[in-house]
């Protein structure tokens, strides 16, 4: 009796989540006659690095340029009665699954490869995937069960700059979380950088002016899950050192950052901030209370 041919395949895939959606590829009729969605990804070429392979495959199947994590999970599926190209084989699939993300503002997914195993790509609701409304491969179910949102903690320094009854604010661009809201000028503290040095640097980068850092007013923090400027979904914890600062007489702040997370800077009346006429983040209110 002839033995069943053994076939082993190593492939790399990415779990790409954006807010409450996941990026999936629909398998073509060449693979299955039924509607079935899976993670974007595919087989490794001989000698190909898995991280390079998954980025290549995601682009071929969705048209999007993804970044992926340094680490991955590995799933193994043994299918001794599988069918491949019209014949029965003893199949063993090893799947390397990375966390992935795509830049904000990326175009809608589209299939790039011709005559491949994918016929469509789309962002689909996570809730529909989890409750079975969207039919998916076992790999999607396994990977989502193990999926954990990346945790990130960030230390930043911010400036409370007052001019009479006005407060200097910076507006968050479309690249940042809470786009369109106003916050204090400032930003992240680099490794080994003194917070006051970081604050002066960030204010100059955002507002084009130098500030004198006077004193620490308060320490504020925020915790939420959202999409980072990179496009990666993060469980974010921000720790904010808020300083009282002053501008030199005659200096006028202006937005100078290009393609960053700030698209405008301006003085706003304290009354408008407190009344809600100007949408601001909580750190602004905390700074005003501490500086009163």
Automatic annotation (TrEMBL):
State a single Pfam family of this protein.
Answer: NUDIX
What SUPFAM superfamilies does the database record attribute to this sequence? Nudix (SSF55811)
Residues annotated as domain Nudix hydrolase? 6-146, 152-292
Q: PROSITE patterns this protein is in?
A: NUDIX, NUDIX_BOX
Q: Which InterPro entries match?
A: Nudix_hydrolase, NUDIX_hydrolase-like_dom_sf, NUDIX_hydrolase_CS, NUDIX_hydrolase_dom
Task: Specify whether Hydrolase is a keyword of the entry.
Answer: yes
Q: Which UniProt keywords apply?
A: Hydrolase
Span of the secretion signal?
none
The reply to whether Cell membrane figures as a keyword in the UniProt entry is no
User: What family does the database annotate?
Assistant: Belongs to the Nudix hydrolase family.
Protein's name in the database: NUDIX domain-containing protein
Please tell me the species this chain comes from: Nocardioides aestuarii
């Amino acid at each position: 009796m002839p033995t069943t041919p053994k076939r082993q395949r190593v492939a790399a895939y990415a779990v790409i989540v954006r807010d409450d959606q996941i990026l999936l590829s629909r398998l073509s009729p060449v693979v299955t006659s039924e509607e079935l969605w899976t993670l974007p990804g595919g087989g490794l070429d001989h000698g190909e690095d898995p991280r390079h392979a998954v980025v290549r495959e995601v682009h071929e199947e969705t048209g999007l340029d993804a970044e992926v994590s340094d680490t991955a999970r590995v799933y193994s599926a043994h299918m001794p009665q599988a069918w491949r190209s019209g014949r029965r084989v003893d199949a063993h699939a090893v799947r390397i699954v990375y966390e992935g993300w795509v830049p904000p503002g990326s175009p809608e997914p589209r299939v790039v490869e011709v005559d491949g195993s994918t016929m469509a790509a789309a962002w689909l609701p996570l809730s529909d995937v989890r409750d079975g409304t969207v039919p998916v491969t076992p790999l999607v179910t396994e990977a989502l069960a193990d999926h954990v949102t990346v945790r990130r903690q960030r230390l930043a320094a911010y400036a409370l700059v007052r001019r009479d009854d006005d407060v200097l604010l910076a507006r968050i661009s479309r690249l940042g979380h809470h786009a369109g809201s106003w916050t204090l000028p400032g930003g992240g503290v680099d490794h080994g950088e003194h917070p006051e040095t970081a604050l002066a640097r960030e204010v100059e980068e955002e507002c084009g002016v130098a500030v004198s850092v006077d004193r620490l007013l308060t320490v504020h923090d925020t915790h939420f899950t959202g999409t980072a400027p990179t496009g990666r979904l993060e469980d974010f914890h921000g720790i904010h050192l808020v300083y009282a600062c002053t501008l030199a007489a005659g200096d006028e702040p202006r937005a100078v950052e290009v393609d960053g997370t700030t698209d405008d800077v301006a003085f706003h009346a304290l009354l408008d901030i407190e009344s809600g006429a100007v949408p601001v983040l909580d750190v602004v209110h905390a700074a005003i209370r501490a500086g009163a």
